[in-house]
Design brief:
The chain contains 9 helices and 11 strands. The protein is α+β, with helices and mostly antiparallel strands and 367 residues long. It folds into 3 domains: 112 residues, Methane Monooxygenase Hydroxylase, Chain G, domain 1 (Up-down Bundle); 151 residues, Alpha-Beta Plaits (2-Layer Sandwich); 89 residues, Double Stranded RNA Binding Domain. The chain has an 8-stranded mixed sheet with strand order 2-3-1-5-4-9-10-11. Strands 6-7-8 form a 3-stranded antiparallel sheet, with helices on one face. Helix 1 runs antiparallel to helix 3 and helix 1 runs parallel beside helix 4. The longest helix has 37 residues. It starts with 6 loop residues before the first helix and ends with a helix. 26% of the residues are buried.
Length: 367
């Protein structure tokens, strides 16, 4: 009978989903939504705009998470009915298509259950910087920026561009943007590292292969300033006018702010806010977060050194993009690869991200 073709697959999928529900704790999620709904309904909520935005954002995120889980449960029940009732090849095809779609959705939910780090649930601030490679590198940085923005667009995640430094030639020197979504930091943190592009350069005349690099940094959004002391004499603050492509000024006041942390050389620029005060405050929050993460990385590295196990957790090249000959994008940590780079640059990153999260979890368990 046709219904036995996929019954075992459905049973395995149901088992995986039951495990996911246990981790998500649906009842606790409902209780959290009820609490946030009560806060959001308070008549004086918007007396404190910042608090109100946090409450409404948290409520929206929790409601979306619950909807994802309940929708999968509903679709699983429907799939069981389809499998039982199918009596011809057409209905069997319909059931198999739904099975494949649910396997993908549940796979994504399963990956999310692996995001249990201290800051994994937070939104993310992503910075892309061009490296070696001249115009090819700045163009590559721009390609990566578009790739991540398209990825966020596919998932309907709100994005705010915080700063962009345009190159004199092609592309960008750097860009910083914020992704506001549940688990954005935990999800995107596996994208941090050095990305390498190999292609026939469109900027040269010799038709030679050019290799260029760009760095991706991902940090969590901290709701409040983290407790990192930054003495005034350790920073240099420069103000300037926001600029667009080709160095064009896009406003008439010196509202953009660049903060340089002199001891570490960390530079943070902000230009998306309207006032200099707001840009400085936003830049300081990002700087403090970076310093906090740097401190933790140094402490972790010291512990490994004392234990006699010095290993690089992120190699100089975590992913390579080949746009000549074989046409391939390959992650050097996980081995995950895609033979159609254009789909990757168009934001199809979920496979790489899921493989990266699973790779990191295995690595953490081994450590």
């Amino acid at each position: 009978m046709l219904e036995f073709d996929i019954s075992a697959d459905i049973q395995a999928l149901r088992s995986t989903f039951d495990d996911i529900q246990a981790v998500v704790d649906v009842e606790a999620l409902r209780a959290e939504i009820a609490r946030l709904s009560e806060e959001a309904g308070a008549p004086d909520l918007w007396d404190d705009v910042e608090k109100a935005q946090k409450v409404t954002s948290a409520l929206s995120h929790r409601q979306a998470e619950l909807k994802r889980v309940t929708e999968v449960e509903r679709r699983l029940d429907v799939l069981v009915e389809l499998a039982v009732e199918m009596d011809d090849e057409e209905s069997a095809d319909e059931a198999r298509k739904e099975l494949a779609q649910l396997e993908d959705v549940i796979g994504q939910l399963e990956v999310q259950t692996l995001l249990d780090g201290e800051y994994d649930e937070r939104s993310a601030v992503v910075t892309i910087r061009s490296g070696a490679g001249g115009d090819d590198a700045t163009d590559f940085a721009d390609m990566l920026l578009r790739m991540y923005l398209r990825w966020a667009e596919r998932h309907k995640y709100p994005v705010k561009i915080m700063d962009t430094s345009y190159a004199e030639g092609a592309g960008i020197k750097s860009a910083t943007f914020q992704v506001d979504a549940p688990y954005a930091y935990g999800t995107l943190s596996v994208e941090a590292g050095t990305h390498r592009l190999a292609r026939i350069s469109p900027f040269g005349s010799a038709d030679k292969r050019q290799t260029s690099f760009a760095a991706v940094e991902v940090i969590p959004v901290m709701e409040e300033a983290v407790e990192v002391d930054v003495p005034e004499n350790d920073i240099r603050v420069d103000v300037f006018r926001s600029s667009g492509p080709g160095g064009q000024s896009v406003n008439t006041t010196d509202s953009a702010v660049r903060i340089t942390h002199i001891p570490t050389g960390i530079v943070v620029s902000m230009q998306n806010e309207k006032s200099q005060i707001q840009n400085r405050a936003a830049a300081m929050r990002v700087l403090q977060t970076r310093l906090m993460l740097l401190q933790r990385e140094e402490e972790a590295a010291k512990k490994k050194e004392l234990a006699g196990t010095i290993t690089a957790s992120w190699g100089d090249q975590m992913r390579s993009y080949f746009l000549y000959g074989q046409q391939l994008v390959k992650d050097l940590r996980t081995g995950h690869e895609v033979g159609n780079p254009s789909t990757v640059f168009d934001g199809d990153l979920d496979g790489f991200i899921a493989a990266g999260i699973r790779w990191r979890k295995r690595k953490d368990d081994d450590d």
